[in-house]
């Protein structure tokens, strides 16, 4: 698993239609790299229904220049939700009873694949290496399962070959795309094995390339002049910097997660 694992924790209250009984509060715990971070610190204000990130306030400290995919899922697409900083912190802070979650109302989200592939795609023996990486990945999923988690949504490695960084630094984009595909194939296969060898988990796989390609195929639709420009304002280009997507792609990612997982956590 990539070093420097970053993640956040947040809790959202329920959302209900006017006059309707509300669903019980659900919780969304996520683990990820820089495309998932919000800058949460466990020694500062913790989340609540009225303050969904706890600290810092929305949109948090993201690499999108605004809301990232999590921000969109807990605001625009949310029906209720929780986020956490690493499996160890989860075990210490939330796994022990009494806690606000159980196996039915907890969703685990994981998106760490970009760093795994971005830093390794040009190395030798990728099939063996990605098998080792994925084994470590699912060791952490197993830990979460042992703590009571039963519902998992995994995001695939994004198409690294589409980033301005890779497109302008002379990278072999065909080889890079093949590495992304290989990594994602290993992840998908191991998710299926995990589901088959455990009694009661649910597992969803979100293909992140859909969001990237939708925006890049129609940049003007999303306020950008082309598919490669970058701007720290996060909205006038598709890219916040030469590696991290801006708000438009993150919103599409959030919508993709919401559509795949659905209720009771999200509406689409």
From TrEMBL:
Protein name: Related to cellulose-binding GDSL lipase/acylhydrolase
Gene Ontology MF annotations: hydrolase activity, acting on ester bonds
Signal peptide: 1-22
Cross-referenced InterPro entries: GDSL, GDSL_Est/Lipase, SGNH_hydro_sf
UniProt entry tagged with the keyword DNA-binding: no
Gene3D superfamilies documented for this protein: SGNH hydrolase
Taxonomic source organism: Cephalotrichum gorgonifer
UniProt keywords, alphabetically: Hydrolase, Signal
């Amino acid at each position: 698993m990539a070093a420097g694992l970053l993640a956040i924790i947040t809790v959202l209250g329920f959302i209900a239609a006017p006059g309707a009984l509300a669903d019980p509060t659900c919780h969304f715990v996520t683990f990820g790299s820089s495309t998932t971070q919000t800058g949460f610190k466990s020694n500062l204000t913790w989340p609540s229904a009225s303050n969904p990130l706890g600290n810092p306030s929305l949109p948090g400290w993201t690499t999108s220049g605004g809301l990232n995919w999590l921000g969109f899922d807990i605001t625009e697409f949310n029906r209720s939700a929780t986020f956490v900083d690493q499996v160890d912190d989860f075990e210490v802070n939330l796994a022990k009873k009494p806690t606000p979650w159980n196996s039915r109302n907890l969703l685990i989200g994981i998106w760490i694949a970009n760093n795994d592939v971005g830093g390794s795609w040009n190395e030798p023996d990728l099939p063996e290496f990605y098998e080792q990486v994925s084994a470590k990945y699912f060791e952490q999923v197993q830990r979460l399962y042992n703590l009571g988690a039963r519902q998992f949504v995994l995001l695939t490695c994004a198409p690294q070959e589409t980033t301005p960084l890779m497109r302008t630094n002379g990278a072999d984009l065909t080889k890079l795309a093949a590495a992304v595909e290989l990594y994602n194939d290993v992840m998908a296969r191991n998710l299926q094995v995990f589901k088959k060898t455990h009694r009661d988990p649910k597992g969803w796989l979100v293909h992140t390339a859909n969001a990237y390609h939708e925006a890049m195929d129609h940049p003007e639709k999303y306020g950008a002049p082309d598919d490669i420009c970058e701007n720290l304002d996060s909205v006038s280009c598709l890219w916040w910097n030469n590696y991290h997507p801006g708000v438009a792609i993150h919103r599409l990612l959030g919508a993709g997660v919401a559509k795949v997982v659905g209720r009771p956590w999200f509406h689409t």
